[in-house]
Amino acid sequence: MSKSKVYFVKLNELNKIKDLLPSFDKPLGVKVHFGERGNISFVPAVYIKQIVEMINEPTLIETSVLYKSARRTAIGHKELAIEHGFDFAPVDFLDGEFGDDFMQVDIKGKHFQKAYLGKGLEKYKSLLVISHFKGHEMCGFGGALKNLGMGLASRRGKLAQHSSIKHEANKTKCVGCGLCVNDCPVNAIFFDSENKAEINKDICISCSKCISVCPQEAIRIPWKSIGREELQERVAEYASAGAQDRNCFFINFVINIVHNCDCNNEPMEKITADVGVLVSDNPVAIDQASYDLVLKQFPDFINHESEYQLKHTEELGLGSRQYELINI
Questions:
Q1: Cα(123)–Cα(212) distance, rounded to whole angstroms?
Q2: Same domain, 264 and 307
Q3: Interval 74-90: pLDDT, tens
Q4: Band of residue 155 on the pLDDT scale cut at 50, 70, 90
Q5: What CATH number has the domain bearing residue 194?
């Protein structure tokens, strides 16, 4: 298997990336992460803006999150994006206002035969996936693969990756407001004898709209219902779905390296010095190279077990882990 080219660019020389970018078929979606409120380790907007200015007619694309956050709705997510400086290009939230607009993609995975991605993705012929490489509690690290897989999934798709069981209503938190009952698209939620919400798991399609509309955070997300290996493999399969039939290119910012995800709503301490920026057309190779470079200067990063997502994505044919690192 031939080695993929991964280019290394210094953070203060981002202008060199322009000569590495391919000719994108339009429309082009630039997949980014706007950071969580309170988080300071996400890739600063000023760097994303420099890259976006190298491209004609880009649109920043994102999806909603499962948990309680401003990023749970398109309106709140856009307000946060602008607050963090992402006001220099149009923004498209692929899964709609509440995260329940999805497109179904057929895949041949170990865990999934279908993936549920943000419906708006169907109009984009090309993707530029700009990712922050850092640690992650369950995936080992978050980079191009996680940004492509989890980052393009609708709310239903995100829950499918995180959980093997249906979510439940916490009746001690439920106040019987009825928002989840009224908004459920398949009428899977009803009131019990105590006027508390209950979910019929035989009917539930895991779209997770109830999570979005509940003002009491009474819908429980079973985050740890699967193990590290299976979650990483599920993310890998969704990454293959997101890249399917699209011209994709990847940029990893290996800076502000912390132990956990940018979805954390608090500052986190950097665990090592910034490395730089990597560029490639291979998401597996760029994540492998990012991991290797961090590990070289911070050996304890080996504790971020991440073998499963790299191995499984390579098995799915999304790219090779073998790479040639080229300094630009």
A1: 25
A2: yes
A3: 999 999 999 999 999 99
A4: confident
A5: 3.30.70.20
